[in-house]
Amino acid sequence: MILKNANILVVDDDVDVLTAMRLLLKSKAKNVVTAQSPNEIQTLLTKNKFDVIILDMNFNAVVNTGNEGIYWLRKIKEFDAEISVILITAYGDLDLAIKSLKKGAADFLVKPWQNEKLLSSIKEILEQKKSGKPKKKHNLVYSTKIIGESPVMEEVFYKINKIAPTDANILILGENGTGKDLIAKAIHDNSMRKDQPFVKVDVGALTASLFESELFGHKKGAFTDAIEDRMGRFEQANGGTLFLDEIGNISLQQQARLLTVLQNRKITPIGSNESILVNIRLICATNQDISYLANENYFRKDLVYRINTVEITVPPLRERNKDVVLLAQYYVMMYAEKYLKSNFTLADSFVQKLKQYYFPGNVRELQYALERAVIMSDSSVLTDKDLVFSPIEKHQKPIQQTEQTLEEVEKNTISKVIEKNNGNISKSAKELGITRTALYRRMHKYGL
Q1: pTM recorded for the entire structure
Q2: What per-residue string of b and e applies to 110-130 under the rule 16 or more CB within 10 Å gives b?
Q3: Complete domains list, the chain, with CATH
């Protein structure tokens, strides 16, 4: 077996991680070397020939970049470009880890890692090196209708593949019409719970009186209209995934009730004195900006942390130029089949009009425009005249503000503090009064 001949270096400042890696790999690999400090890497590389290096993304060392993992990855590649590096990252560093792939990382694993996944990743890397074939892309997401080849969607696909097998709670952010529900379903379909229920609830549409009954259920006679027992959505999703859409629209009182259930993993149906244990994977979505959820006047911060182990931002269609025509071809073919029409050809004028449009309604608006075009067209060739956009949406691009926004102020402040601390993330986070994970998220948001 190819792993038997491999020399592996593990670099992590956590002794427990090093011990766990050594125990896992020592009987399977030829040689396993561990190091607590990345400063040892260069010395070890001069003395040994490693096939794979497993590298933590965060250390206490002061470096001149915003992220230690990417810094040391670059140093390793400068020393020997042929060495394959697997990064180990916490949930909060996932966006940075994805960015590191562009810097030359072979793969990354999320803590706590699964042993089989780690071994599989190492084997795949070694086999690819032996065969000389390029590493395959990681954007294969099964059992979904998500279409996209743009760089921003490749990052979404990669993140889905990494987080789906875990039980981490996911928060999906994005404008209306971007397909947040498809992302939620993709996470479920690629998870260990894929054969169990996927239950979706639009919690933003629930009235105060229906909220508890819908989510937690009720007993017969609990209130006037309770003519029979009703199982709540939490119980329906037991063993599977519960998707709470429009989570940003629920009241503070509803948030408090939801938080209690998520903390205890127990529900009590209305009219019952008995609690029911529930085992669910929680996915939430909202079209609200993350800054809205950070405002405790509207949303409980403790609930944000509870639902947001990992966040995925679904990009608007205007940032997915490469995908517009691809999506158009898919929907035209779908609606031609639905309405029993012959295959359509997209004229250059049709494609050009698509590319020039801003799509304030995102994929949903594109879908409805194409359905109308297929229905109304009397020709097998769709031209720009067939493409009519909905008057519901505001078609103009947003006005650029000349005054400095709060986000710009935050970006500038973070940049100055990191520079002041010579790239030390821990010190910078402490000075800013936020966690290191929160700082990484803001750095990714502002491209720092």
Answers
A1: 0.64
A2: beebeeeebeebbeebbeebe
A3: 2-131 (3.40.50.2300), 151-313 (3.40.50.300), 317-386 (1.10.8.60), 406-446 (1.10.10)
